[in-house]
Amino acid sequence: MSDERYSLIDPTSARRLELPVLEPTLGPNVLSLAGLYSHSGVFTYDPGFGATASCTSNITYVDGEKGILLYRGYPIEQLAEHSTFIEVAYLLLHGELPTAEQLQAFDHSIRTHTMLNESLLRFFNGFHHNAHPMAMVSGVVASMSAFYHDTTDIQMEHDRDVFAHRIIAKIPTIAAAAYKHSKGQPFVYPLNRLDYCSNMLHMFFSVPSDSYEVDPVAAQALDLLFILHADHEQNCSTSTVRLAGSSGTNPYAAIAAGISALWGPAHGGANEAVINMLEEIGSAKHIGKYIARAKDRNDPFRLMGFGHRVYKNYDPRATIIRKMCHRLLEQLKASDTPLFELALRLEEVALRDDYFIEKNLYPNVDFYSGIIYRALGIPKSMFTVMFAIARCVGWVTHWREMVADPGTRIGRPRQLYVGPPSRNYRAIGEREEAA
Ligand code: SDX
Q: Which residues pair with 9 in a beta bridge?
């Protein structure tokens, strides 16, 4: 807490309100509103929480003006260059980069907890074959609370660790089972000898009738995408996990709530929506029409993969993924170059347009990621599931920080009520039709 005070004059009583100022390690100062209502009788109003810090956290820092993203203080560019997803998962969970022994032990624990209870696997037979994989994954993750209630005493550090390793290890297996169910193919068991991303590709693409070798280029591309998607401070789905978790609910249920929040096209569902948009645009000659639609306030169409609540500069993750697209499409000799060329052209036209410049709308993490997933052979319907697998590490990390914080209280926002004042009940014969 700094010695600074922020003074406000309460217009209703002309009283001075002194608000304590909290100083962060990085980023803007924060006014503490704790006690504001009890001292002044007023609420604050911030729909969408655009300027509201919901918690203190030492996990991830985003500077939207400068396009900076740090995981536990390490720049995303350096982690993308030098680290692996499993090492980043350890960093996020524990706050420090692991020693060789710590990494080996963590990697071994994850590799040896990837199998699902066989009864859980039978859940998939209950889904229609064309169920959206996000519906299947959120449903099966929520049902894990019916299987693993032996270790969900969230006040116990041991139980919190078991939960963290279990969900991080098993969510790729659940995702692969959803994919195989949607293809009508047999489920493929995980192999402990494979690393996290190679195992995922094995469970997705191998079939009993043929041999399958994981392409190391594809595994490495997936690993990099997962590093970039692992966490992003208090985004919509992470805040959902924190809010659900603040009631003390089963942690698997809190993660399932995060998966549901991520699914929306304004959030993690944007990667699937970007590909749908590019396919609808079809060719560069139609770009102008769609840019015009995106600018038209009467048209609900938005340029998917563009804009961000926090980044008013280039999303550093989009920069890394765009570079990766170039390299990967060449290495994989993928046929998706027209879609990538169209995306590059669309970005070029948008970033020259005054509307996008004035509103600081830049490509975000979702703009190019779908092109890479497609090049890896992953279908559109699975794109947000891939995002969920990676973000599960961030969700678990924030959930653990929230549960371990003695200052945590159940999240319960207030409101600006604009409904009818108190009124008396009227018998049905005395009612006239509402206008
Ligand atoms: C993710 O929060 C995170 O950290 C999220 C994420 C993470 O890692 O967890 O980074 C992942 O969710 C990335 C965002 C993926 N979503 C999309 O790409 C969908 C398209 N983008 C928009 O829907 C929008 O930009 C949001 C939802 C991302 C941000 O919405 P905001 O902050 O509420 O911004 P806004 O809607 O208030 O937009 C400000 C203005 C508006 O115009 P005016 O009302 O001021 O005239 O910009 C316009 C918007 O109409 N605008 C767009 C636009 N995005 C914003 N106009 C056209 N196309 C767009 N994409």
A: 16
